[in-house]
Design a protein that fits this description.
The complex is a heterotrimer.
Chain A: H1 18-22, H2 27-48, H3 56-60, H4 64-82, H5 86-92, H6 117-145, H7 156-174, H8 179-190, H9 199-217, H10 235-238, H11 242-270, H12 283-314, H13 328-362, H14 369-382, H15 400-410, H16 412-426, H17 435-458, H18 460-466, H19 470-500, H20 506-532, H21 547-578, H22 632-635
Helix pairs in contact in A: 2-4, 4-9, 6-7, 6-8, 6-9, 6-21, 7-9, 7-11, 8-11, 9-11, 11-12, 12-13, 12-14, 13-14, 13-16, 13-17, 13-19, 14-16, 16-17, 17-19, 17-20, 19-20, 20-21
Chain B: H1 2-27, E1 33-35, E2 37-41, E3 44-54, H2 58-61, E4 70-75, E5 78-80, E6 84-87, E7 92-99, E8 122-124, E9 127-129, E10 137-143, E11 148-153, E12 175-182, E13 187-192, E14 216-221
Chain C: H1 6-29, H2 40-73, H3 91-119, E1 138-145, E2 148-153, E3 159-161, E4 165-167, E5 172-178, E6 183-187, E7 192-196, E8 202-206, E9 212-218, E10 230-236, H4 238-251, H5 253-258
Helix pairs in contact in C: 1-2, 2-3
Classes of the chains: A mainly alpha, B mainly beta, C alpha+beta.
C-alpha cells in the first residue's frame, strides 16, 4: 500500500538571517505564548473567583482557581506556539491534508513540532533523561537529610515536597521511559512501517510531558506539596497552592500517556507490513501493545480523580471531604485503580526489552515466545484486579481482602513466565557480555528480588507490618528502578548506536554498569531491613537505632548518583566529543531495524518489506527436536 | 564547531549549577533561631521566652502571606517572625504568650486541659487554671514529644481595639498567658498549634498550620 | 570433550542448595524475624514471614544459581561468533512450570486467608471486621489528629489519655479513627496497623503477650509532622493497668468533662474550610 508522501529534496540550505529563523511556530514562540497564557489565565482566574463563594481565598492568601487556569492557559499557549493548532485550523479552513511537518530542517527540528517518529524518539530520550536527572538530584537531597534522625538539613515541608517531586516526576516521566524514546523510534521500523498512525499526536505526547515536568518543578514557587506522589485526600485538599502544580502535572501526564498508548495500539494493529502476523511480531512490540492497553484504560481514571480533587480545592465541592458526605476512600480507590496498572506500565516494557535483547546476545531464538506473550497479556489483564492490595489496612470491607490477596498472588504467575523465558533463552547459549546484556542480567536479579518481596506484601498478615514502611519502598525501587531503569539503560546502550551512528566508550559503559549495579543493591537491600525494623515512609525523623543503617544507605545512594554521572560523562564523551562511528549492525542482530543503514532514512524503508519469520532466527539446528533438555543417555 | 559545543556545554553547566544552588537554598531554609533570654537573679538563672500570636501576620513580616495567623517571638525587645527557639537543658523556662487572636475552638476538647507544665497549670490574665473552655481556644503551644500542651484562650469577639497586623502592642486587646516548662535533656523537638486556626483551609489545618515560622516550629534544647 | 549433562548438574546443585538453605533460613532467621513476639498477632506475623521466606528461598536460589551457572558455563568463547542451539521452547517444561507456580501461589493465598480470618492478623478490618475473636475485649479508641495520637477508653468513663497502656494477656479491640486527614496507627512490637480515616471506625484486635514498651508510629503521610508523630506505649500487668487508668481518670477529669460523648467516629467543627 503506498501512501502519498510529500518529497522534500535535500537541497543545500539557504542561510536565512537569525531573526527570520526565530519567527514562526517554534520553541521560542511556544515559551512566549506559554508565559502570556499563564498571565492571562492568572488574570481570568482572579476575575472569575472574586465572588462571595470564593471568600476563603482572601483568608488563605492564595487563589487555586487563578493558578489552575494560569497553568492550563499556559500549556495551551505553549502548544499553540509550537504549532499544534496549525493543522486542525488549516483543515477547518479547507486546506489539504498533510502528514509531515518540519522533517528536513536540521538540528532545529529537535526543538519543535516534528512528525518524524525518529525525531520524537530522540526528543523523548533527552527530555525524559533531563527529568530523570532532576528527580535523581531530589533523591540525593532526600538521602542527605536522612543522614540525620531529626529534621536537620532540610526543613520538614521542603523535605515532603522533595519526596513528592521525586516520586511524581519519576512515576510521571518514566511511565513513558521506554515507550517514549524506544517504542516511538523503533516500533514503526520493527513492524515495517514508515511512520506512526498519528504522527502529530505522537509529537504532542512529548511536548505535553515536557510542559508537565516544568509545571511540577514550579511547585517550589508556590509552597510545594505535602502529599507525596500519591496525592491522598483530604491532605490534598488542605494543602497550599503548590498542590495544584502536582494536579496539573499528573493530569497532563495522564493525557500524554493515554494518547501515546492510543497511537501505539493503532500503529501496531493497522500498520504492520505484509507477512507480519501476530506470531511473528517482535516480543518488544508485544510488550508495547500490552503496556499501551493499560495506558489507555487507566490514565482516564487518574485524570478523573485529579479533576475531582481540583474541584474540591477550588469550588469547595466535597467529593473527598468526610464531614460533608464525601469520602477519602473514594480518592484512594480511584487513584489506585490507575496506580496499579501504572506500575505494570512501568514493568512490562522492561520485560519486552530483556526478552528482545537476550536472543541477540545469547545467539539463540527467544525461548517460549507464546509463553512470554501470554505472560505479558496476563499481567496486563490481571493488573486491573489487584489494586486494593494498597488498601489492606485501610479499613475496606474485610470480605474483600482475601480476594485481593488471591488476585495479587495470581499475578505473579504470568510474571513468572517471563523469568522462565529468560532462563530458557540462556540455556546452552553462547552469551557475550556486552553492556546491554549486563543490564539485562542485572534486571533479572533485581526484578527477582523485587518480585519476591511483592509476594510478602501481597500476604495480608505480613503486609500489616510492612505497609507504609521502607519495605514497600525497597520493593518498588527494586522492581521499578532495578527493573525498568536497568532496562532503560540496556535499551540506550543497545539502540543509541543505531539512533546516532556513534559508539559508546566501552570502559566507561562497563564502569557505569558495575558501579550502578553494586551501589543500587547496596542502597536498596538495607531498606527491606529498615522497613521490617519499623521505619515508616516519607519521614525525616526516625528511631535512633536505625541511624547507622540510614547512613550506610545514604552513602550508597551518593555512589549510585555518581554512577549516573559516569553515564552522563560517557554520553557527552562518546556522543559529543569523540564521536567514534558505530557499525550499522554492531550486535549482529537479525531484527529489522538493524538491517537499515545508519542514519535511518526519513521514510525508513525504500520499499515496505515482506516479512516471512520472527526476528529470532538465531542458532544452529541442534538436531534435538522440540525439547530443550537432553536425555541423560544422549549428552554424554 | 567544537568551540560552539564547548560554549553551549559551559552555559548549560552554569545554568544547572545556579538552579541547583537555588533549589538547595530553598530546601534548607529554616526560620531564624531565637534564643530564650536568660537573666541572673538572686535565686539563680531564670530563662524567659516571650511570644505573641496574631490573627494576621501582616505584609511587613510576610509579604506573601499577610493574612496568615502566626506566632512571633521577642528578641532583645524586637518582635521577630520566627518559630525556632533555643532553650537551655535541665532548666525551668518561663514562657509568656501575648494572645491577640480571637478564638476558633478545639477540634479535640481533650487538649483543653493543661499538660506537661510545672504544676500542670497556666496563668491567664493573672488567674491560674488547669483547663480552659475548649470553645475559647485560640491557639496552643504544644511540644508532643515532651508531653507539653498548653491551650491558649482567645480575645473575646466583641473586645475593643483589636490588633490588625503584627507586631501588636500592649495597648491593643490581648490576653497575657504565662506558664513554666522544665526542659530535660538535650534534643531538637518540634512544637505546634493544635487549634484549627488556619482560616480558609480544610478543617482549619492547612497553610500556616503546616508551615514553619507560623504555627509550627522547633524547640532546640541545648 | 563430551558435553556434560547441564540439566542434571544444575538440578542437583539447586536441590542441594535448597535443602541446605531452607532449613537454615527457618531455624536461624525465623526466630529473629520482625516484628517479634510482643503479641499473639505479632507472633503470627513472624510465623507467616517464616513460611513466606521458606517458600521464597528455593525460588531465589533457582534463579540466582541459574544465572551464575549460565554466566559461567554458557559463554561465547573469546573472539568467537558461535551460535547456540535453535531451541524455541519445551512444552513439557512450560506446563510443569505453570502447574508448579500456580500451586505454590494458590497455596500461599489459601494460607494467608486462613491466617487472616483467624482474628484479623492485627490489620485494620473496617467497621465490620469478618474475623472477630471471642471472649471479653478491652475497648480502646485510637484518635488520630494532626499530629498526635490520643486514646479513649469508653469503659472507663470515656477518659482520653495521651499515651497508651494496655494490660497483658487481654484481648484488646482497638477502634481507630481520625479527626482530619488519613493517618495510620502502627504499633510495631504488637504487630498492629490500622489506617485512621476520618468518619470511619477501623477495628483491629490485638492481644499483647508480655509486659513491654512498644513504639507507635504514624504510617500514612499526614502532613509536615508525619515523621514526628510517634509515641511509646506500655504493656503492664492487669493490676498496674487498673491503677494507671484510675489515676488517668483523676488527672484528666477536667478534660473528660469537655469531651463529646464517646462515639465510633467524630466530625468536629470545622468539618469543611475554617472561617
Amino acid at each position: 500500500m503506498s501512501t502519498t508522501i510529500e518529497s522534500h529534496p535535500q537541497s543545500a540550505p539557504v542561510r536565512r538571517p537569525l531573526w527570520r529563523r526565530l519567527v514562526g511556530f517554534n520553541l521560542l514562540s511556544a515559551v512566549i505564548l506559554g508565559v502570556a497564557g499563564y498571565y492571562l489565565g492568572w488574570f481570568v482566574g482572579h476575575q472569575v473567583s472574586s465572588g462571595k463563594s470564593f471568600e476563603f481565598f482572601s483568608a488563605t492568601d492564595e487563589n487555586d482557581v487563578a493558578l489552575l487556569l494560569a497553568y492550563l492557559f499556559g500549556v495551551a499557549g505553549f502548544l499553540i506556539g509550537l504549532g499544534f493548532a496549525n493543522y486542525p485550523v488549516s483543515r477547518l479552513l479547507g486546506k489539504p491534508a498533510s502528514l509531515r511537518e518540519k522533517e528536513d530542517e536540521g538540528i532545529g527540528r529537535y526543538f519543535g513540532l516534528c512528525t518524524d517518529h525518529k525525531v520524537v524518539g530522540m526528543q523523548y530520550l533527552v527530555g525524559i533523561g533531563l527529568f530523570f536527572f532532576i528527580a535523581g538530584l531530589n533523591a540525593m537531597l532526600i538521602r542527605t537529610e536522612l543522614l540525620h534522625d531529626t529534621p536537620t538539613t532540610i526543613a520538614p515541608n521542603q523535605y515532603l515536597s522533595l519526596v513528592g517531586m521525586h516520586g511524581a516526576m519519576m512515576m510521571g516521566m518514566m511511565t513513558s521511559g521506554i515507550l517514549g524514546p524506544f517504542a516511538n523510534y523503533f516500533v514503526p521500523i520493527m513492524i515495517g512501517a514508515r511512520r506512526m498512525a498519528f504522527p502529530r499526536i505522537e509529537a504532542l505526547t512529548f511536548w505535553l510531558l515536557m510542559a508537565a515536568g516544568f509545571i511540577l518543578t514550579s511547585t517550589i514557587f508556590f509552597g510545594g506539596f505535602p502529599t507525596g506522589w500519591t496525592g491522598y485526600e483530604p491532605l490534598n485538599d488542605q494543602a497550599v497552592m503548590g498542590m495544584d502544580s502536582y494536579i496539573v502535572f499528573f493530569a497532563l501526564v495522564g493525557v500524554s500517556m493515554c494518547l501515546l498508548g492510543l497511537n501505539m495500539i493503532a500503529t501496531i494493529i493497522t500498520m504492520r507490513a505484509p507477512g507480519l502476523t501476530w506470531s511473528r511480531l517482535p516480543i518488544f512490540v508485544w510488550s508495547v501493545l500490552a503496556t499501551s492497553v493499560l495506558m489507555v484504560l487507566s490514565a482516564p481514571m487518574l485524570i478523573a480523580a485529579l479533576a475531582m480533587a481540583a474541584l474540591d480545592r477550588t469550588v469547595d465541592t466535597s467529593f473527598f471531604v468526610a464531614g460533608a458526605g464525601g469520602s477519602p476512600y473514594l480518592f484512594e480507590n480511584l487513584f489506585w485503580f490507575f496506580g496499579h496498572p501504572e506500575v505494570y506500565i512501568l514493568a512490562l516494557p522492561g520485560f519486552g526489552i530483556v526478552l528482545e535483547l537476550l536472543p541477540v546476545f545469547t545467539r539463540k531464538p527467544l525461548w517460549g515466545y507464546r509463553l512470554a506473550v501470554s505472560g505479558m497479556l496476563g499481567v496486563s489483564l490481571l493488573s486491573f484486579f489487584v489494586w486494593q492490595h494498597h488498601l489492606f489496612v485501610s479499613g475496606i470491607n474485610a470480605d474483600l481482602r482475601p480476594f485481593y490477596m488471591l488476585s495479587t498472588e495470581i499475578i505473579s504467575i504470568p510474571t513468572g513466565f517471563i523469568f522462565l523465558c529468560v532462563m530458557g533463552t540462556l540455556w546452552k547459549s553462547r552469551t557475550s557480555f556486552s553492556v546491554p546484556m549486563l543490564f539485562c542480567l542485572g534486571w533479572t536479579f533485581n526484578f527477582l528480588i523485587g518480585g519476591l518481596s511483592g509476594v510478602f506484601l501481597s500476604d495480608t498478615p505480613s503486609d500489616t507490618d510492612t505497609h507504609g514502611s521502607f519495605f514497600v519502598m525497597a520493593h518498588f525501587h527494586y522492581t521499578i528502578m532495578g527493573g525498568l531503569i536497568f532496562t532503560f539503560f540496556a535499551a540506550i546502550y543497545y539502540w543509541v548506536p543505531k539512533m546516532t551512528g556513534l559508539r559508546f566508550n566501552e570502559r566507561l559503559s562497563k564502569w557505569h554498569f558495575w558501579l550502578m549495579f553494586v551501589s543500587f543493591n547496596s542502597t536498596f537491600l538495607p531498606l527491606f531491613v529498615l522497613g521490617m525494623k519499623g521505619m515508616p515512609r516519607r519521614v525525616s525523623s526516625y528511631a535512633p537505632n536505625l541511624h547507622a543503617l540510614n547512613v550506610w544507605v545514604s552513602i550508597s545512594a551518593f555512589v549510585l548518583g555518581f554512577s549516573m554521572l559516569i553515564f552522563l560523562a560517557n554520553a557527552v564523551w562518546s556522543l559529543v566529543i569523540v564521536r567514534v562511528p558505530a557499525l550499522a549492525n554492531p550486535w549482529r542482530s537479525k531484527s529489522l531495524e538493524w538491517q537499515l543503514p545508519t542514519p535511518v532514512p526519513v521514510n525508513n524503508f525504500e520499499q515496505i518489506p515482506v516479512i516471512d519469520s520472527d526476528p529470532y532466527d538465531y542458532g544452529t539446528p541442534s538436531g534435538i527436536a522440540g525439547g530443550g533438555i537432553e536425555p541423560a543417555a544422549a549428552g554424554t | 564547531m567544537a568551540k560552539k559545543v564547548m560554549g553551549i556545554g559551559v552555559a548549560v553547566i552554569a545554568a544547572a549549577t545556579l538552579i541547583a544552588l537555588y533549589v538547595a537554598s530553598w530546601a534548607t531554609s529554616f526560620p531564624k533561631t531565637v534564643a530564650a533570654s536568660s537573666a541572673s537573679t538572686t535565686a539563680g538563672v531564670s530563662t524567659h521566652l516571650t511570644l505573641q500570636t496574631v490573627a494576621a501576620v501582616g505584609p511587613k513580616y510576610s509579604p506573601e502571606h499577610p493574612d496568615w495567623v502566626s506566632y512571633l517571638v521577642q528578641s532583645h525587645g524586637k518582635w521577630i517572625h520566627s518559630t525556632d527557639f533555643k532553650v537551655p537543658a535541665s532548666s525551668d523556662v518561663q514562657i509568656t504568650v501575648l494572645q491577640y487572636d480571637g478564638d476558633s475552638g478545639l477540634r479535640n476538647p481533650f487538649l483543653s486541659e493543661v499538660q506537661g507544665t510545672v504544676g500542670k497549670t497556666e496563668t491567664v490574665d493573672g488567674k491560674t487554671i488547669n483547663a480552659i473552655d475548649p470553645e475559647e481556644a485560640s491557639h496552643t503551644f504544644a511540644v508532643p514529644e515532651l508531653g507539653i500542651l498548653v491551650a491558649l484562650p482567645g480575645v473575646a469577639e466583641e473586645a475593643k481595639n483589636q490588633c490588625e497586623f503584627a507586631p501588636c502592642t500592649m495597648a491593643e486587646a490581648h490576653r497575657t498567658i504565662t506558664f513554666t516548662i522544665h526542659t530535660g535533656k538535650k534534643g531538637r523537638y518540634h512544637w505546634q498549634c493544635f487549634v484549627p486556626c488556619a482560616a480558609g483551609f480544610l478543617t482549619g489545618g492547612g497553610g500556616p498550620m503546616q508551615t514553619l515560622g507560623y504555627m509550627d516550629g522547633f524547640l532546640d534544647v541545648v | 570433550m563430551a558435553e556434560p549433562n547441564h540439566a542434571r548438574r544444575f538440578t542437583i546443585l539447586w536441590v542441594v542448595a535448597s535443602l541446605i538453605a531452607t532449613p537454615l533460613v527457618i531455624v536461624l532467621l525465623g526466630p529473629i524475624l520482625p516484628p517479634g513476639n510482643g503479641s499473639a498477632q505479632a507472633s503470627g506475623h513472624v510465623t507467616d514471614n517464616t513460611v513466606l521466606l521458606a517458600m521464597a528461598t528455593p525460588v531465589l536460589l533457582l534463579v540466582v544459581l541459574y544465572l551464575i551457572y549460565a554466566v559461567i558455563v554458557f559463554r561465547q568463547p573469546k573472539g568467537g561468533a558461535l551460535e547456540g542451539p535453535a531451541v524455541r521452547g519445551d512444552q513439557r517444561l512450560q506446563t510443569w512450570w505453570i502447574v508448579v507456580t500456580s500451586l505454590l501461589v494458590l497455596s500461599l493465598a489459601a494460607y494467608g486467608t486462613v491466617r487472616l480470618e483467624q482474628d484479623g492478623a492485627g490489620s485494620g478490618g473496617g467497621p465490620s471486621p469478618v474475623a472477630v475473636p471471642g471472649g471479653k475485649k478491652l475497648q480502646v479508641q485510637v484518635i488520630a489528629q494532626q499530629w498526635e495520637f490520643t486514646y479513649r477508653f469508653p469503659e472507663y468513663g470515656g477518659v482520653e489519655v495521651p499515651h497508651l497502656e494496655l494490660p497483658v494477656d487481654q484481648m484488646v479491640e482497638l477502634h481507630v479513627t481520625s479527626l482530619d486527614v488519613i493517618h495510620s496507627f502502627w504499633a510495631y512490637q504488637l504487630g498492629v496497623k490500622a489506617d485512621a480515616n476520618p468518619n470511619v471506625d477501623n477495628v483491629v484486635f490485638v492481644k499483647p503477650t508480655h509486659e513491654q514498651t512498644f513504639e507507635v508510629r504514624c504510617a500514612e503521610l499526614c502532613g509536615i509532622w508525619h515523621g514526628a508523630m510517634f509515641d511509646h506505649g506500655h504493656v503492664v500487668s492487669q493490676a498496674a493497668f487498673n491503677a494507671w487508668i484510675a489515676q488517668q481518670q483523676t488527672e484528666y477529669a477536667a478534660a473528660t468533662k469537655s469531651l463529646p460523648p464517646y462515639s465510633k467516629t467524630y466530625l468536629p467543627e470545622p468539618t469543611r474550610r475554617a472561617e
